[in-house]
Amino acid sequence: MFKRTKLILIATILLSGCSTTNNESNNETKSVPEEMEASKYVGQGFQPPAEKDAIEFVKKHKDKIAKRGEQFFMDNFGLKVKATNVVGSGDGVEVFVHCDDHDIVFNASIPFDNQLLTVIAH
């Protein structure tokens, strides 16, 4: 009887400890609701692994990078898009865009590398 009670007590402590740790890590990374329609998600709260310099660069030049991403689709595909999110990615930047042009609805990301970023900054 004593062994069974001891086993239940230990199992309860171990399981409750794990669930507390898991909830803390979810709160740190969650900036988007748990459930959301796919058509309404535009990349908010998403941050791929990135170098610190890339993240700082995005904060300083977000508008220029967004315009450059929009211009990419206009020049190459003749589509009017709107940049919805700009994030640092690796040692570069990703621009997320949304298009409602010509009955086409899509989201796409455009990776920019360091060489292009130096052109944007100047």
Describe the overall structure:
By secondary structure, this protein is α+β, with helices and mostly antiparallel strands. It is built from three helices and three strands, in the order H-H-E-E-E-H. A three-stranded antiparallel β-sheet has the order 1-2-3. Strand 1 and strand 2 form a beta hairpin. The radius of gyration is 22 Å and the shape is elongated. Mean pLDDT is 74; it is low at 21-30.
Helix-strand category: alpha+beta
Strand line-up in the sheet with most strands: 1-2-3
The biggest beta sheet is recorded as: 3 strands, antiparallel
- Cα-atom Rg, whole angstroms? 22 Å
User: Poorly predicted ranges (pLDDT <50, ≥5 residues)?
Assistant: 21-30
**SSE order, one letter for each helix or strand:** HHEEEH
The end-to-end span amounts to 76 Å
- Whole-number average pLDDT? 74
| Beta strand count | 3
Helical stretch tally: 3
Specify the overall morphology.
elongated
Query: What is the helical fraction, as a range of percent?
Result: 40-55%
Strand content: 15-25%
Organism: Staphylococcus aureus
Keywords: Lipoprotein, Signal
Biased composition (Low complexity): 20-29
Region (Disordered): 20-43
